[in-house]
Predict the structure.
Amino acid sequence: MQQSRRALAALLAPPMLWLLVAYLGALAAIFATAFFTTDDFTNKVVQDFSTENFSQLFTPTYLRIIGRTLLIATTVTVLCTLIAVPFAYFMTYLAPRRMRGLLVAAVLVPLWASYLVKAYAWRAMLQPGGVLDSTFGATPGYGFTAVVLTLTYLWLPYMILPVYAGFERLPRSHLEAAADLGSSGMTAFRRVILPSLKPAIAAGTIFTFSLSLGDYIAVQIVGGKLQVLGTAVRQNIALDLPFAAAIGTASVAIMVLYLVAIRRTGALENL
């Protein structure tokens, strides 16, 4: 037994070392850089401790950017959840068994396409005279709505797959028992299905929220002049690396707080 544990520890040592050095080490470097300053004349990083970068984050301009980024991430997460739950329910309980594999493949196929191709496809659809304008007579154009629509499309599979897996793990006997006790469809969904799906939905929201929070490429393609945390990092990284690191640290802090909040609900215990 002791030998097997030692063998397992030796096997896990390389990936754990990679995690500590490459991943956590990079985060530590970003965090440390956020407390440095930049020489105004040479734009070189000066390793003098300062909290000025974080103080600048609390100015009205960057508070609006943070709030806008959180609103986009939250809206995308809510939309993905509202779409994924009924779609996954259809895949699990209503679609013929021979079609389930095809539906899962249909969810996975967009993940194989290039991120840029999908983002530029939405740019073409959202532009004046594009598909939406020609079909519905109007288009939201480029901006907040365009970013939300594009990110919802991009990250929707990451919500559907965990929710579908959650439905697959749900014992059918629970639904049959709810029906025998006279529960209506909505009551059974609210009191039986939804509580059982909480871990799966929580897993999906981690993907959709974090990916939306850090995205800047799609924002540049369809967002027009919209500013979010990701674009703020990109704009400052060449001229003021410590401040860009502070913005990146703020994104990490937001995600850590989000994970802590979800964990306190108990939704992650059975993942």
